Predict the 3D structure of the following.
Amino acid sequence: MKTILLIMLSLSLLQGCSYRPIIDTAGRSSASFNESQAKEISNDLQHCKTIAKENTTFVGNIVYWTLSPTMDTKKESLTRKCLLGRGHNVIN
């Protein structure tokens, strides 16, 4: 009974976590080294979080998290990949 309660508590805490990527806005991305993408960060972050949310489920996030060597959820991973694809230098 205690194990089930502990698992439920852990899952509810994990669900409340909000991913906030650390982005080097002064740096230049390798895709367009001559042009900074910092001016687009707010819009890109909003879009990437929406895309990640629409393409993940709670259970999928937990399964991905348990198998991930970096302990990322699938939503975090998709958000990071989206930002990198848009030319941002994501540190974390």
Notes: The CA atoms of residues 36 and 56 lie 30 Å apart.
